[in-house]
Amino acid sequence: MSKDIKYLVLENYIGGKFVPCSKLIDSFNPSTGTVYCKIPDSGPEEVDAAVRAAKEAFPDWSAKSPEARSKVLNKLADLIEARLEEFAQAESKDQGKAITFARNVDIPRAAHNFRFFASSVLHHTSDCSQMDHMGCLNYTIRCPVGVAGLISPWNLPLYLLTWKIAPAVAAGNTVVAKPSEMTSVTAWMMCQLLEEAGFPPGVVNIVFGTGPRAGDALVSHPDVPLISFTGGTATARLITERSAPYCKKLSLELGGKNPAIIFADADMEQCISTTVRSSFSNQGEICLCTSRIFVERSIYPEFLTRFVEAARRWKTGAPTDPSNDNGALISKEHLQKVKGYVALALKEGAQVHCGEGVDKLTLPEQNAGGYFMLPTIISGVKDSSALMQEEIFGPVTCVTPFDEEEEVISRANGVRYGLSATVWSRDVGRVHRVARKLEAGLVWTNCWLVRDLNLPFGGMKSSGIGREGGVDSYHFFTEVKSITIKH
Ligand code: NAD
């Protein structure tokens, strides 16, 4: 690298001010493989400063009416929307995702998160006993918890960070947030809008840095009573251990190994186009992506042929080209890990139908060093294989036939994860029966990723603890208090 190259240098946002950090780390553009920005390598000192600022801001912010807080959140949503294109370009460059996806999904949803929680916080009610119990009136109130620690991953950077910040501050908490060290730019851009939106200093603080340093300092800070974490199951285990001595309130949104179950009576056309999307959107880097596809044996050959044809039409290339569906994977290491699963499949005797090692990926010259991979479909894999058990988190999906309803439910449930599942059938009774028996926090039937933010979101088993969304976020980000008045 030439010494003349000027990088974007990010600063922490603490107490309403941008604060430079003495140590910086490189952040890469995944579609070129080059460093393009430097982010703070924050540690306990920076995190402590942010927690102090958040603690100081808490009494005033929590005392404001929900209406006053709601106004600020709505204003921030307006400001993000007004800069949608700027944010989308930055997200695409930072994460590697296709610009069209950032424009249509990431940034609109980030703005919507603020708008949604600005509204929902106005409609919560609490309980009051109707009965005179031993001469007493009983009722409940909900109070914000204090300083919320929020940690988010790299796959949907601003989308998932705002999914935490919005409900936390709407409910009256102040926050210290740490985005993924691999995708910090849009969070930093959002900090530039907070004052104009009307957030008093210290209500939203963002520290940038790695998990083991900045993330760990936040999790183990004694003045942060609540942690909302989205990321990998292994990291969640560490977070649980580190927060145990303080009995912190935890919400853990983790990985998945999501099945799609396709019955012979499914609307094939709709099922194939949706299953391509559910398997490969955002390079397969969505926790809800389908990675095991069970197809009823009578339609298996037809499904596989048409599914492969449709996957080949899913375009991978420069994220800046709006005609591309997929861009680059997040990092060189991650690309190698994902490709490693394809190599393992071949070693185990499976068939790779398209994508990695089968089709040729042509890229523009400036993207030659990027971390790209084509949508890859594999069959002939045993349920016990790592390909069917581990979260791959890339554009790889496995297809397998099944014969009976009970058999497929048991196979779909035969993993340690339980985040989401998709069921395809036009038989209403079956759809209800299967959905009830699947071990998953979310079951979509004849669709995928249709999200009503009022619904509880989260997983069971190793996919997480707790639910967020609508009233569940409100409950998580508040403490309930039972009050008894003797009259
Ligand atoms: P990750 O667990 O490596 O990192 C997530 C965040 O945790 C990052 O900000 C990271 O810096 C931080 N972190 C890492 N080590 C830490 C530590 N010791 N203490 C505190 N913080 C720490 O996950 P990732 O690779 O960024 O994201 C991919 C994972 O996230 C996948 O498993 C995916 O399924 C999951 N995910 C889940 C959901 C969901 O809603 N269930 C959504 C998106 C992604």
TrEMBL record:
Q: Does the keyword Isomerase apply?
A: no
Entry keyword set: NAD, Oxidoreductase
Q: Which residues form a coiled coil?
A: none
SUPFAM superfamilies per the UniProt record, alphabetical: ALDH-like
Matching entries from CDD domains are given as:
ALDH_F8_HMSADH (cd07093)
- Which residues carry out catalysis? E253
What's the superkingdom here?
Answer: Eukaryota
- List residues of the Aldehyde dehydrogenase domain: 23-483
Family recorded in the similarity comment: Belongs to the aldehyde dehydrogenase family.
What is the designated name of this protein?
Answer: 2-aminomuconic semialdehyde dehydrogenase
Q: Which species does this protein come from?
A: Labeo rohita (Indian major carp)
